[in-house]
Amino acid sequence: MRPMRRAAALAVLLPAALAPVAHAQAPVAPATPPAAGTPAPVETQLTLRLERVGGPRATALAGSRLRVRGTAPVFVPGQTVTVRFYERGKKRGARRATLRPGPNGTAVLELSYRPEATGSLSVRAFHDPTPQLGGLAARAATVDILPRRVLRRGGRASIRALQRRLDRLGYVVGERGVFDERTGRAVLAFRKVTGMARTSEASVDVMRAIARGKGAFRVRFPEHGRHMEGDLSRQVIALIGASGRVQRIYPTSSGAPATPTVLGSFKVYLRTPGTNAKGMVHSAYFIRGYATHGFPSVPVFPASHGCFRLPIPDARTVFNWMTIGTPVDVYR
What we know:
14% of the residues lie in helices and 34% in strands. The protein is of the alpha+beta class. Strands 1, 3, 5, 6, 9 and 10 form a six-stranded mixed beta sheet that branches. The protein has a five-stranded mixed beta sheet with strand order 13-12-11-19-14.
């Protein structure tokens, strides 16, 4: 009679800075008594982890090499484990690996896999029942596979994958599945926050940074509740909700070196809708003549007379969000 197959744990190895993934392990039923002269069965569990997988959501890029590393507490010569890979719910491949000796009498298996399709990748591992180890099955883990780069005229699925990740971080994207100007500005803002070249290209470096969990805007003044923060070094503004979390991030152009933006903490005291005589669109003033406003020219470097320039398509949304009394924090 074949022994029952029980589930063991499958852990996804994330960067050390992130919180560990909790998981439960279930004991494996021992095999039926072996015939005389056969080694006694060993109760054990199979644990797998995926290495070189970054970000809090377990993410990798299409075409990158994922290393699957497995461990078992006891080494039995000749034992093999089958690892199966499912992309978008369909089986795409299977690999068999022979357990080899590990430290302190443990068993180790190692193999790699290169996912090609974007979307969900599920990894599962099985050990067929033997008198020595019994039957094991590792709980499946899901990895999000992102495209290596996203082109303006690329596929809608790839563009949506980029937009979803940017949206989660607070960057303002455009029409879903379309790499429009607003999505390009979201990529630009992401590049500014991460210290990359200030373009709107969703290159391999951008996608790799997203996969590694980078790009979050660090709020300096969460105790200010609902407020705006203007980061002069990165040339972005962020709208922060009452909980102290980022709601939206926009690229901006602040004061040029000859006319720098004033530093400090202020509050919106005047709002003027429409376009004024200076070409400022939907202005929200926070001290003297300094305001956030839309403007036809918003370069990637400081170029204004001290205000926070915004692309005109974004100006109304920011203006409506900035009510009288909204705190504004400006820093380098």
